[in-house]
Amino acid sequence: MNALAEQWLEVWPRALAAWGRPTRMHRPTLHEEPVPDAGSFAWFSCTDVEVHIDLAQVRARRIEGHALAALAHEVGHHVLAPGDLLTAARTAARVRTGLVDADRLVGTVANLWADLLINDRLQRAADVPVLELYAALGRPRPDDRLFQLVARTYELLWETSRGTLTNPDGAVPEDAAHLCARLVRVYARDPVAGAGGFAALVRTTLAEELESWEPDRRLATCRHREGGDQVPAGLAGDPSLGEPVVHPALDPAVVGDAATSDGAAGDADGTGGEAFGPDPGGGGAGSGHGQGFAPADALAAVRALGLTVDSAQVAAAWYREHATPHLVPFPPVPVPQPREELLGGLEAWELGDDLADVDWTATVSASPVVVPGLTTVRRDVHREDPSRPESRPVDLDLYLDSSGSMPDPKVARAPIALAGAVLALSALRAGARVQATTWSGRGQVAGTDGFTRDADAVLAAVVAHFGGGTSFPLPLLERTHLTPRPALRTGERATHVAVISDAGVISMFEDVVDPFSLYRRAEDADKDRRGDPSTGIAARAVDAAGGGGTLVLRGAAAYADRIAAVALGYDVHLVDGDEDLVRFARAFARRLWARSAGEAARG
User: Fold this and answer.
1) Are 274 and 347 within one domain?
2) Same domain for 442 and 404?
3) 80 within some domain
4) Rounded alpha-carbon distances, angstroms, from residue 314 to 99, 192, 236, 403, 417
5) Does residue 223 sit in the same domain as residue 361?
6) Quick one: pLDDT at residue 237?
7) Partners of residue 377 on adjacent β-strands
């Protein structure tokens, strides 16, 4: 180990102590050789909870004597901002909303915001010379308005003269820097709450330069580097991430009474008095419920951190978290019942048997002289488990329509996928098995490989999407329920067939009726019958499944009677709108599985 590495490791305990004596982390990883594409001389990973230092860059930047400030700064990413992977993803999501249309800068701006909070805390409260480190890194380029903004913010926060960190040869956004300094102090302990406002301030400060701006690597004190392919639990279900971002000039917590209701403060700062993100009063996806944070937004947030996740994985996590509040309750834990004991006859007690098993009364009654192994006896006891009825929850065979009339669940909030997740996860929670299938045109089928209790496999099927035509997979329904198998017997699992679709569900009965008859006049529809509905695959399959069937249809009121006429064995339910679909799924899951889960647990 060279002298520089030893010097930095010697400072490490002081860097931890700057955040309080209880702070604990293992020693930083010091790289003797240059790290390709590091982006800075230091970085921190929330995934590994590890600090890295590139000593080659430390020498190149001539900051060998600033070990305390650099190391304490990296510890701050563990203690204060972001602290953990979930907070990092939430911060990135809010920054992305504030930037509006500059996704490529999300990681950089989120890191700058975390740096502001950490550095201000260290300089003011821990007596760590962060100012000296930044002065050693150099001044921004004269035309770099973002780093001029950040540098001037530090000057205001630390009450140092203008030009200490800023470049006097370039324009300094003074008003924006005052807003930024106030924003840092207001949200000093809440990185997520202030991140969107900082991003909005950056966007209005850069304005036309936003598309072409590139970070100055000379001034990059650190960089977040995350690895892995996990989606942080709790990200997708956070309702606050879909709310509009308020510019600091309009934030009452930042400017107090200056945030007038007519938006004058916003106009003075160039924001036009507008909020950033979903319209808070427009009744859109983001109004009031955080539903503006769609699966595509969650994907962009985690990818901004560098995580290698795909859209299906993020969508599955999104629908799992949004379905959880609607699931059936967990079944009660059964209390073990004592086993019944029946006294039997006497048998010999032999040497080596448990002495406690000797029936001394019977032994002495048979012979007053006790000879172990010869005259000793014990009472045989028969133990039987109490009989109890066995109850098994109904399995679920689920079919979700993903034709062109349905939104892609991996991009936007798709109520049909959310309803399917509620039904499937409720069934799994109750102890049932699920076969989930997403379908569109002919040959466009994705799903689980038969019935399973693997929630990940089920959700992967739920979020699949084709966006093609509409042709129900009758061959799959036939293979599932009509292939040769023993008839349903008492105690064998029954299966409920559930289909969520629209008027296109008529293709489920195409072997007995022409699907186009649905759109013809009622008096002509009967002429298009191809056979008796009771002999069709759908009717025979639901009868063989033994658990009933349900068709949940959106926007099919005009055709409901005709569909019900051929959907023998199925209950046809019409839902009015997306929210009604999710409410129906919640209520239906409780009717079908909540009671059976409790009975199965008690049984």
Assistant:
1) no
2) yes
3) yes
4) 22, 20, 8, 21, 14
5) no
6) 87
7) 348
Low-confidence ranges of the chain (pLDDT < 70): 1, 225, 258-291, 332-342, 383-391, 485-492, 520-530, 595-603
Percent of the chain's residues with pLDDT above 90: 63
Residue 587, domain member (yes or no):
yes
CA distances from 283 to 91, 279, 287, 291 (A): 25, 7, 5, 11
Question: Which of the 8 DSSP states describes residue 506?
Answer: G
Q: Give ∠ CA 377-380-385 in degrees, rounded to 5.
A: 160
On whether residue 331 sits in a domain, the answer given is: no
Q: What is the structure's pLDDT at 256?
A: 87
- Mapping DSSP to helix (H, G, I), strand (E, B) and coil, where does residue 272 land? coil
Strands annotated E in 122-234: 223-224
- Please name the amino acid found at residue 138: G
The amino acid sitting at 455 is A
* Token pair 């039904």 in the structure block, residue: 423
User: Residue 574: its pLDDT value, please?
Assistant: 94
- Please check whether residue 97 is in contact with residue 300, taking contact to mean a CB–CB distance below 8 angstroms: no
Domain closes at, from 283, 304, 325: 304
C-alpha span between 233 and 87 (Å, rounded):
10
Q: Whole-angstrom distance between the N-terminal and C-terminal Cα of the chain?
A: 65
Partners of 435 in the beta sheet? 397
The reply to whether the predicted model has a pTM over 0.85 is no
- Using CA of residue 181, residue 183, residue 186, residue 188, what is the dihedral sign? negative
379 lies in the same domain as 432 = no
60: in domain? yes
Helix axes 191-206, 145-157, angle to 10 degrees: 130
**CA–CA dist 275, 550 (Å, integer):** 44
How many domains would you assign to the chain?
3
- Sheet of strand 29-31: strand arrangement: 29-31, 50-54, 42-45, 223-224
What range defines the domain where residue 493 resides? 395-602
What is the pLDDT at residue 481?
94
Could you tell me which residues come within 8 angstroms of residue 485 by beta carbon, excluding any fewer than 6 positions away? none
